[in-house]
From TrEMBL:
This is Selenoprotein O. Keywords: ATP-binding, Magnesium, Metal-binding, Nucleotide-binding, Nucleotidyltransferase, Signal, Transferase. One of its GO terms (molecular function) is ATP binding. Residues 1-16 form the signal peptide.
Length: 486
């Protein structure tokens, strides 16, 4: 009798961990066109490397035995309410259209209210195109760290709930590596890509283009719009969201690395962390992806590429656009990009009101930082303390800047320093930091990963015991190569 009681308590406890209560993508769209049901391929002896307790608290998810959690979060066992599905899409990759892509190694596990749970590395799907369907520990750690870093910087992004590994499943890339699975959390619309619309448009499946657009409208805004021009308004809204997102990337020095139309979503958040990087001492032409031989996705090219991708989305929505109404998605993108970027850069300078000449000021600073190879993040953080690199201290921008501060009455004021330190982070995810954490993790030591997670969750705070992470990258870090292979 006691054993039965204990078994009941155990089962009840497992059920409180996570129960998917809906899956709007499956409920509102047919599998005939939009996805394929798939069972994740089991991994041997999965173990839970890390769990995002902050995100669990936000979602009201309870902690259970780590071994059981690893089984569920690897896809070995299905959670209650789960109907795993792989989503289909297409996309322009490095400027060339690929007519069919999709979740080749990922599954949509289910939803908890509006939050979709998307697991990457769960085995091959119908869209794997000959791939093994797996992700490796190296890239999975980078995605986990990056999504937390971006979120805590205040940049829209998917977030990682969990990281599960399996040392018993070797994965061949450039070398034999350890398998891993990351579960990403975001509103369901975050997994609708610009390339999803391209798939149906290029096939002439205009009914499906409309179905998808209606799905996005309903789930992005929480209601079904009946306005005749709703698709025009949707495109404009996507353009505005995208402009705002890319402005944040540029202000914080983030480089996505692979801005294909299948790697940009319609909600305006960062998705699909591959060979990303934060600029350090090189800005113009900085490319974190060694496969990008033509520097198509360089840091300084991101706004132009985002606008190019929007133009492809505009073509994909042609069948829905009310042509008598003017379509100004390019104008709206650049308007919101420039407006948001200007606002962020003036905040980074510690300025409180607008002057047209401020644009020259921060553009000149960026030019000089690049010219003299001055670390981007360290410059902005130290500017609040009036610590200026000697190479640019006597340049004209500095006297203009001091005059500008004096005109606001905020020169050398404590309140300005505090304000600047709330937007200029002391810590970012430098490539070498992830590289070191990965090297240790591959040997079974996850202490550095935990240390970095703590660091990156407080990027604006003074953390005296972490000051080494605020320094410029070591010389050997220049030899680190990041590829799409993951």
């Amino acid at each position: 009798m006691i054993l039965l009681f204990l078994l009941f308590i155990f089962i009840s406890h497992v059920q409180t961990f996570l129960h998917f209560n809906n899956n709007t993508y499956i409920e509102q769209l047919p599998s005939t066109y939009f996805y394929s049901f798939i069972q994740p391929k089991p991994v041997p002896e999965p173990y839970l490397i890390t769990i995002n307790e902050e995100l669990m608290s936000l979602l009201s998810i309870s902690m259970i035995d780590r071994r059981q959690m690893a089984e569920y979060l690897s896809g070995n066992k299905l959670l209650s309410g789960s109907q795993p599905a792989a989503m289909i899409y297409a996309g322009h990759q490095f400027g060339y259209f690929t007519s069919q892509l999709g979740d080749g190694r990922a599954v949509l596990l289910g939803q908890l209210n509006q939050w979709a749970f998307h697991a990457k590395g769960t085995g091959p799907t119908q869209y794997a195109r000959g791939g093994d369907g797996r992700a490796v520990l190296r890239s999975s750690i980078r995605e986990y760290l990056a999504s937390e870093a971006m979120f805590n910087l205040g940049i829209e992004t998917t977030r990682a709930l969990s990281l599960v590994g399996s040392v018993m499943l070797p994965v061949r890339r450039e070398a034999i590596e350890t398998a891993a699975i990351v579960v990403r959390i975001a509103p369901i619309v975050a997994f609708i890509r610009m390339g999803t619309f391209e798939l149906f448009s290029t096939r002439g499946q205009y009914d499906q283009v409309q179905q998808l657009a209606d799905f996005v409208i309903k789930n992005m805004y929480g209601k079904t719009l009946t306005n005749k021009n709703r698709y025009n308004l949707l495109l404009i809204d996507i353009a505005q969201r995208t402009g705002n997102l890319v402005a944040y990337w540029q202000a914080y020095g983030f480089t996505h690395g692979v801005l294909n139309t299948d790697n940009m979503n319609v909600i305006g958040s960062t998705i699909d962390y591959g060979p990303f990087g934060f600029v350090e001492t090189k800005l113009q032409g900085y490319v974190p992806n060694h496969s990008d031989d033509e520097s198509r996705y360089a840091f300084d090219q991101q706004p132009t590429i985002a606008a190019w991708n929007l133009a492809k989305l505009r073509l994909a929505l042609n069948s829905l656009i009310d042509l008598p109404k003017p379509i100004t998605e390019q104008y709206e993108f650049w308007l919101h990009f420039n407006r948001t970027y200007d606002k962020l850069m003036r905040k980074k300078l510690g300025l409180t009101y607008y002057m047209q000449s401020d644009k020259w000021l921060y553009e000149e600073i960026i030019r000089l930082l690049d010219l003299y190879h001055i670390d981007y993040t360290r410059f902005w953080r130290q500017l609040a303390d009036d610590i200026i690199p000697i190479e640019i201290q006597k340049q004209h921008w500095y006297s203009v800047y001091k005059q500008r501060l004096a005109s606001e009455g905020s020169y050398a004021k404590k309140i300005r320093r505090e304000r600047m330190n709330r937007i200029n982070p002391k810590y970012i995810l430098r490539n070498y930091m992830a590289h070191v954490a990965i090297g240790k993790a591959q040997k079974g030591d996850f202490n550095e990963l935990d240390r970095l997670l703590h660091l990156l969750r407080h990027p604006y705070d003074e953390q005296p015991d972490m000051n080494d992470y605020a320094q410029v990258s070591p010389e050997w870090a220049k030899k680190i190569i990041i590829s799409c292979s993951s």
